[in-house]
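pasting for the record
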Amino acid sequence: MASTRDIRRRIKSVKNTRQITKAMELVAASKMKKAQQAALSGRPYAELMAQMLGSLAERVEEAQHPFLVKREVAVRGIILITSDKGLCGPLNSNLFKLVTDIKTPAKYAVIGRKGAQFIARTRRDLLADFPANDRASFADIRVVAEFMVKQFLDGVVDTVEVIWPRFRNTLVQVPTTMTLLPLSSVKEAVNGLHADAGHAHPAKPATAPDTQMLFEPDAALVLHSLLPLYLNREVYQHALDAKASEHSARMVAMKTAKDNATKLLGDLTLEYNKARQAGITQEILEIAAAQFAA
């Protein structure tokens, strides 16, 4: 049995760990609420963009835009969205499993230090890496999207895909892969935006006379301007989704660590009391033996 001094040291260490994990849980919970609000605030924008793209789909020849031109896939282009920091449970490792399952040639643009370290460690082709700040703005994420679009248009990669943790609720974050380019049709973009807006099924574009949209100077030019904006917005929404998933996973991980520390503290306290009682009993026996010998 360990000495009472060693047990006291372990109890003090566990108490300090529990205090740290509790503080980290509270911080993650606060950031999680803000991240969830940021992710949900983009839904009205997604709904309006879906309505515009739905109206454009009926008026424009889709094959005119380079985003809609399919080609043979030789090299995949993947945007991997991870966290900068750890202590968020299996969130990043689940994403890395999806990357490991990719057997075809691929080039990566990574958001988050953990993802960049994994790509470099596994000797995969890293095109660029970007930080995953808590307050990442649309302008910051647009740089990533535009970089990958340029690689797609220049022929460096033949697809643009995103791997990120899709946020469902505080306890569930699903590692997901989504293809952004090339688009099969404008309707595919509309379906994706409706899904981001929270609809189970894509809504049909409004056709009533009072909701018809007029495009100036013409619908084709608006489509050419709107599709890049759609792509930037999708990557930004996925980055917000990943940030909400990160803080949720970290809060759950820290709560689990705090609960385990509390349980371990109870076990150590019981062991300490037993050891102390055994020491007292031993001292009483020694005193009694000494008195009897005298």
